[in-house]
Amino acid sequence: MKLFRRSSSVVAALLLALTSVLMGAQQAAAAAPAYVALGDSYSSGTGAGDYGDSGDCKRSANAYPALWAAANSPSSFSFTACSGATTTTVISGQLAPLGAGTGLISVSAGGNDVGFADVMTTCILEGEESCLSAVATARSQMSSLLPGRLNTLYATIKTRAPNARVVVMGYPRLYMLNGTCIVGLRESERAALNAASDQLNSVISARAAAYGFTFGDVRGAFTGHEICSGDAWLHSLTVPVGNSYHPNQDGQALGYLPVFRARA
Ligand SMILES: CCCCCCCCCCCCCCCC(=O)Oc1ccc([N+](=O)[O-])cc1
């Protein structure tokens, strides 16, 4: 009997050891969760090159979602972000991969809902009054139209991927004020665009918090690397014109990626 007790405790100890070895091995082998990257051109990586066969969506191999996936081996990776996307087209065109098994989502959206491209075009082609007026219109849409649009997007994401951690990424300020630029927009226009970026970030951050999502604020990461900084991580007006006012490779790898990595 004594012998039996002794051997059974030996067996129990062996089982415990074996179990912890197996669990340790399991933890080591566990991949990052299934990851879906949603959003507009700041997430697709327009401006960062290497778009493969992604067509007009301009999904870059150098965009932060692709860089994160390459470094973290998620169990699956669906990259549906698309240049020009609004909250509405994210819902209608990007959510197919979402499901109960989705563990991680990144998303940037809202800039195109308030006319980002139109505002930039107006500021380049027209005078100060038109530019400031276009910025003012965009800012009024940020408080009137955008919160409801973001609510609809975030509620839909939550319903379609109830178990996911959702990281909502913001946008950088575009300009370093009193910087090195000798041509381009007026200082008043640059300041107005920066203030618009700040308002856009606050609206998005507040809506994200209301849904229990994490907000990735990239403004700090881009500080010192805005247009007119001399070490810009954003394209100024450039050719091809679609790259203008978008993060370059450094903006994705050194601006967006570390902020997302810290929140993923
Ligand atoms: C929003 C009013 C102007 C305020 C300036 C704020 C600057 C930072 C905010 C940037 C927001 C950009 C989000 C949109 C990114 C995007 O998808 O850009 C486009 C890319 C491509 C197209 N397009 O039509 O091909 C249109 C838009």
UniProtKB/TrEMBL annotation:
Disulfide bonds join 57-82, 123-131, 181-228. Gene3D superfamilies: SGNH hydrolase. The keyword Transmembrane helix does not apply. One of its GO terms (biological process) is triglyceride catabolic process. The keyword Disulfide bond applies. Pfam families: Lipase_GDSL_2. Residues 37-254 form the SGNH hydrolase-type esterase domain. InterPro entries: SEST-like, SGNH_hydro, SGNH_hydro_sf. GO terms for molecular function: triacylglycerol lipase activity. Its EC number is 3.1.1.-, 3.1.1.3. Residues 1-24 form the signal peptide. This is Lipase 1. It comes from Streptomyces jeddahensis.
